[in-house]
């Protein structure tokens, strides 16, 4: 067999091998658009250890959000948060509200934040005992400086403990409205 035919045959065999390996690694199916459930499950972005700071019109911090990771979903535009921690500054008061939860969901427009599982809401004011509110779920409306829940709430402050079902909280002035089944204990010392 002539040398040029042997070389040509080896080159042709190498090209065929490369094409078959390329087809195996990059299947044409990988280039087709996702449909149905596969497209809905695909996140738009994923962030680990996120820290987001938003400023108000005066250039002061309005809130700081940290989370162990965030996943933005394409289908509804919402962002799912794991272990969100939100410092929420309001008015001229230097003491922020602290909101923590195991999970959170931020709507596409950012006008609503749903916190779930082990929700903590706390504010420590100078020369006053800390107020600590816990519940299983809380909805925050940041633009309205307002939070609410229809779940059971436990409020601890100084030497008192109050429980209720349902709550409305106006964050700017710290006004709290308990909706039903309100019970309180006060320890006198």
Task: Walk me through the structure.
The protein has a six-stranded antiparallel beta barrel. The mean pLDDT is 76. It has 189 residues and is mainly beta. Strand 2 and strand 3 form a beta hairpin.
Q: Which terms summarize this structure?
A:
single chain, mainly beta, six-stranded antiparallel barrel, 189 residues, 2 helices
Overall, the morphology is elongated
- Mean residue pLDDT: 76
**Count of DSSP H/I helices:** 2
Q: Strand order, main sheet: write it out.
A: 2-3-6-7-5-4
Rg result: 28 Å
Q: How many strands in all? A: 11
Our measurement of the CA-to-CA distance between the termini, rounded to an integer number of angstroms, reads 107 Å
How would you sum up the major sheet? 6 strands, antiparallel, barrel
Estimated share of beta-strand residues:
over 45%
- Taking pLDDT < 50 over at least 5 consecutive residues as the criterion, the unreliable ranges are none
Question: What string, H for helix and E for strand, traces the elements in order?
Answer: HHEEEEEEEEEEE
- What class do helices, strands and sheet pairing give? mainly beta
Helix content: 10-25%
